[in-house]
Amino acid sequence: MKIHVIVLFLMMPFLAYSGETLSLYEARQLAVSHNRKIKQAELERQASGLQTRSAFNNFLPRFDFEGGYQLRGKKYSLLENDMFLPVIPYEGIDGSSGTFNSALAPGAFAMHPETGQPILNADGTPVFQNYAWLPQSEVEVGSKHNWQFGVSMRQPLYMGGKIRRGHEIAQRAESISEAREELTIMEVIARTDELYWQVVQLCEMLSLTNSYIEMLENLEQDMENLFREGIVTRNQLLQVQVRKNEVKLSAIQVENGLELSRLALNQFVGLPFYDRAELSETFSPEMLKMEEGLYTDLALEQRQELRMMNEAVTIAEKLVQVERAEMMPAIGIMAGYSVSNPNPYNGFAREFGGDYSVGVGISIPIFHFGEKRNQVAQAKIARQQQQLELEETREMVQLQVSRELLSFHESKSRLDLANLSLEQAEENLRVTNNLFNEGRATTRDVLEAQAHWQDAHATSISAKAAHRLAYTNLQKAIGDLKISDNQ
């Protein structure tokens, strides 16, 4: 379909300014290239394609960069106040245990001058001979200006199948968008055919009405000559004139209807409102040469509605699998490298220092009071609903194909009978005119023969239009309505 759209846009200037005959094929091209619903469907398809690509990206690792700056008014203080630390002689350290042994360094404690025993403080512990003063300000860390930067990577290893199912769902959704675009194009083509053949029908009706008026004017001229010669009465002349006026009024109505139909067609296909391109009356449908039962099989294979419904059923099945995956473990790896200033790896010096990190994470659902099981059951119900809707749609498609096939055959029979009646009406008019010229038929007989001739032509024109639309509807019903149909 992309190739078709490109060709349409390239051909638009030539079609729009041809100024000659606008064929049904050209009208379809213009309508498809101009229609905004088709453009919306195309944009929706493009968005679905991007969504599919985004879903595939979930298989790949994610790389992120983070950075920050923080201005602090105070530093971190590791002490509540100044501290005095006891000074322990080296010889007081027990080599085997690495702890202080007072027996190895008896001079480490302050001795009472009278008792010769270590002086004890309020909590009963000995007081050391020497202490080192540690001011609170010397153990403050941090800086007024703080910087931190880092790069991280996260890669899912096992998610219970959620990522794969999500990608498959996105692919199915993209297929639905493509089918919806094709369906929109088909609807636009069907509407174009309806407007096109309506204009053709009214053109033929107007031509018929003008021919009828010309016929009545010729009869009126003959009647005036006969009236002056006294062969016919004034009442007979007035009958012809009244009938001519009635047909002229009908011609005005047909002209107005034709004008409105042209405007509607021009608007739909994107031509200037008051364009007067001639329309082709050529109609030679190429029906598929196969048994009637095969039309239904073809429709079940080609109809875009069924394609969309089948994809919806598949999506519903994938959603069941997604809900089941929620009950499975999720495993992922992560890695990163970060730098910061002050440097926490070098005494919080005012410099940048960094380090890497690697880790594995796992999440296992254990007990959620049946929440996951209920979600799986809901997804199964949604799948059953989609399946039932698909079955109903299949039945409706079969019914529609049968109805449109019967309508097509009926329209063909009506057209054949209308053409037969037209031949008979033309012969009846010829015979009546001959009898009138010989004086063996009245004015009323001629008017009635002309009216029958006009009705037969109008019926034939309507039957042709109905047959053309019946063919379009049948092609649409079997999903085979395309721009390039030979008609």
CATH architecture of the largest domain: Up-down Bundle
Q: Any idea what the radius of gyration is? A: 47 Å
Global geometry: rod-shaped
Could you state the order of secondary-structure elements as H and E? HEHHEEEEEEHHEHHEEHH
Question: What report would you give on this structure?
Answer:
InterPro entries: OMP_efflux (IPR003423), TolC-like (IPR051906). Keywords: Cell outer membrane, Coiled coil, Membrane, Transmembrane, Transmembrane beta strand, Transport. This is Outer membrane protein TolC. GO terms for molecular function: efflux transmembrane transporter activity; porin activity. Belongs to the outer membrane factor (OMF) (TC 1.B.17) family. By secondary structure, the protein is α+β, with helices and mostly antiparallel strands. It folds into two domains: 2-34 and 159-328 and 366-477, Outer membrane efflux proteins (OEP), CATH 1.20.1600.10; 83-134, no CATH class. Helix content is 59%, strand content 13%. The protein has nine helices and ten strands. It has helices at residues 2-16, 24-34, 36-56, 162-228, 234-269, 292-302, 304-325, 371-437, 443-477, and strands at 21-22, 62-71, 76-77, 83-86, 131-134, 140-141, 145-158, 278-279, 330-341, 353-363. The strands form four sheets. The protein has a four-stranded antiparallel β-sheet, with no helix packed on it. Helix 3 packs antiparallel against helix 4 and helix 6 (292-302) crosses helix 8 (371-437). The longest helix is centred in the middle third of the chain and has 67 residues, at 162-228. It is rod-shaped. The chain starts with a helix and ends in a 10-residue tail after the last helix. 24% of the residues are buried. Mean pLDDT is 87; it is low at 1-18.
